[in-house]
Structure formats: structure tokens, C-alpha cells
Amino acid sequence: MNLARSRSRTPSSTTLGATTCAAGMTIVGTSIAIAPSLEGYPVLAGQGWRYLLAGLILMAVLVARTPSPVPDRATVSPLRRIRAATATLTGVTLGTAIRLTAIAATGLAAFNWLLIEGTRHADPAFMAAVVGAAPLVLALLGPLAGGHRIRLGTAAGSAVVVTGIVLVHGATAAPLVAWPYAIAFLACEAAFTLLAVPVLKELTPLQLSTGTCLIAAPMLAVVSVVTQESGLQAPTATEALALLYMAVGTTAVAFLLWYSGVARLGADRAGLFIGVMPISGYLAGVAIGSSTWAIPALAGVLLCGAGIALGLRQSPRHPARSADCLKDPAHSTRGAPSPAETLESTDSQREEDRRDDERPDDRHQQRVLLDP
Fold it and tell me: In whole angstroms, what is the distance from residue 48 CA to residue 265 CA?
């Protein structure tokens, strides 16, 4: 009895994953409200500084949590700890190294460049509406990439979330020349999560977040130089605070939370929580006065919440058996299961639900948050 109560109080993998994904996207969404503070600062250079600072912060955490390379010694020099932490990133397989570079190149560097180029040809709301289709893309491609079947409930919930995102941002028209940028922008957003799924089988979310940030920083520096963007401009006090918030909150903390959730939920169900981002961004904008209350936006917020709930809902089991029992009254007397069979069936059903709820990546859930 006590064991059963203890298990019931333990948060499920789905609950923990949903919590971390929602928290990560809430932080990212609030950055939308402070983004106007950086309008006068070079975008690519600013993002490069952001990822560099976030990578150094995450590396410091990784060093602090890396086990001592010499277990018998009570104290180890900081240099040896740094080497041990760096070895966890440099000692990955070739495939993981390629995926880490691909995540940094697409989900971070190219994502920011495409955003800049795309908004030169179309309204920012158009780019936001197109990238808002990411939940549906992840719901369809996530299971296929992992060799699983598509969850129809998750796909349906993702479609509702996408509709809500469009309502929050507002649907606008765009010239044909803007569409390649928008589609590539969406592909980079999806790659940020899809490419991470196999990496999370070898690395923890902390290691993954650290590696991608440190790889993306020099990439953005190179792009900034190639595009002749001024990268040595000293930020104002307001710009410095905005960059600091984006480095610590939107990048270091949010990346760690997001990838922790992806490791538990899988790419498809984690993608539902992209719908939290426009909700938090809109509410934060209303709070600071940069956005106003509007019925379509409020409807979009409600749709995003409803879509997330729908996508996470467990599908009913064995509906055909229930229908047969209703059609044939004999099932209510003849052939009715005994109490022992009923208990056995219930335990079997719970075990099946548990297996369906947990992905192969959950074998890392004991170290999924911070352990290196």
C-alpha cells in the first residue's frame, strides 16, 4: 500500500518532460518582448556574443558537475577538472560530432541569418506564422526519425497549436521571394530538435547545450564578418542587459530545459510546447505595454493551450472490445472476467501505458537535467 502511494506521488516522465519544455518555451517567449531593445545593435554579432557567453556559463556548470578525474584525491586542480569536462565533449563519436555541428549550423547560426534576410522581404509576422508550423512538422517527422508510429492525437493537437500560433502572430501575405527564406527558417527550427534526439542517447542535455553554443558562436562571428556587419559596437546599458538576459535565460537555461524535455517526451510531443512561446511572448508584451489585448490573439492563446492538452492526451485502449460488449449482452454474464482476471488486465494495461509513455531516451532520465 505504501509503495503504491509512493509511486503515485512520483511525477511521471511525461509530467517532468512537459514541465521542463513549458518552462523553457516560457523563457524564450518572454525574450520576444525584450527583442526591440536590441534593434540598434548588430544582430549577428549580438547573437554570437549571446551564444559565446551562454556556452561559457554552461561549460562552467559542466566543469563543476564533472566527477573528479582522480577519485582518491579530495581536491583536484581546476585545470584538471576543465580537461575532464572538455573530454566529455571532444570524446564523442564522429556521428555525434557531426550532429552537434549541424545543430549549431542550422538551429542557431542559419536560423538567425534567415530571420534577418527573411524579414527584409516580408513582415516579421509572416516569418513567425510559418515557423509556427514546427509543432506539426515535429509531430510527423519526429516518430519517423525514431522508427516509431505517428501519434494521431499528437498530430491533431499540433495542428490546433499551429492554428493558435497563427492567430497570435497574425497571418500576413508575403511576396514569392520571401517563401524560400520562410521554409528554410522552419526547417532550421525543426532541425534544432530532430537532430538532437540521437545525440541525447550519448550526451546529456547539459553537454548538448554546451557544445552547440560553443560551436555556433564562431560560426556567427564568421557570418557577421562576411556580411560586413559591425561586430565591435559597444552595447548600451539597455542592450547589455538584454544580451545578458538572452544569454543566461533564453539560451543557457532554456536550452537545458528544452533538451531535458525532449529526452523524456520525444521530439513529437515536445514540439507541442512550442505553442507556449507565443503565449508567454504575448502576455509579456501586454504586461510591458508593447502589445495590446485583441480577441484573435486571445483566441490563439486558448487554442495553443487546448492543442497541447489534446496532444498529450492518451488514446483510449481497446475501443473495439468495448463496442462488442455493448452489442452482445452475453458478454455481461457469460464470459465475464473474474476479479483476478480484471486485476491482471488492469496491471497489464498500466504497464502498457507506461511503456508507451516512455521513449528509449528515458534510460538517461536519472541524469537528464545536469549530470554530465
Answer: 30
Burial 220-252 (b: 16+ CB within 10 A, else e): bbebbeeeebebeeebeeebeebbebbbbbbbb
User: Cell 510531443, residue?
Assistant: 269
Is 312 part of a structural domain of the chain? yes
- C-alpha 220/C-alpha 109 separation (Å) is 6
pTM of the model: 0.78
d(CA 344, CA 350): 10
Residue that wins the pLDDT comparison between 295 and 343: 295
Domain contains 372: no
Q: In this predicted structure, what is the pLDDT of residue 148?
A: 85
Question: Would you state the torsion angle of the CA atoms of residues 344, 349, 354, 356, taken in this order, to the nearest 10 degrees?
Answer: 140
Q: How many domains does the chain have?
A: 1
Residue 231's pLDDT is 57
Contact between residue 284 and residue 37 where contact means Cβ atoms under 8 Å apart = no
At CB < 8 A and 24+ separation, what contacts does 81-86 make?
85/59, 85/372
d(CA 165, CA 279) in angstroms, rounded, equals 8
pLDDT digits (tens, 9 = 90+) for 243-277: 999 899 999 999 999 999 999 999 999 999 998 88
- Asked if 300 contacts 157 with a C-beta cutoff of 8 angstroms, the reply is no
Taking 60 as the threshold, does the pLDDT of residue 183 lie above it? yes
Backbone angles phi, psi at 83, to 5 degrees: -65, -40
- Confidence bin at 205 (pLDDT 50/70/90): very high
Q: For 201, list phi and psi in degrees, rounded to 5.
A: -80, -20
Task: Specify the residue for cell string 556567427.
Answer: 220
Q: What range does the domain containing 284 cover?
A: 11-70+77-367
> Taking 90 as the threshold, does the pLDDT of residue 342 lie above it?
no
Do residues 132 and 165 touch, judged by C-beta distance below 8 A?
Answer: yes
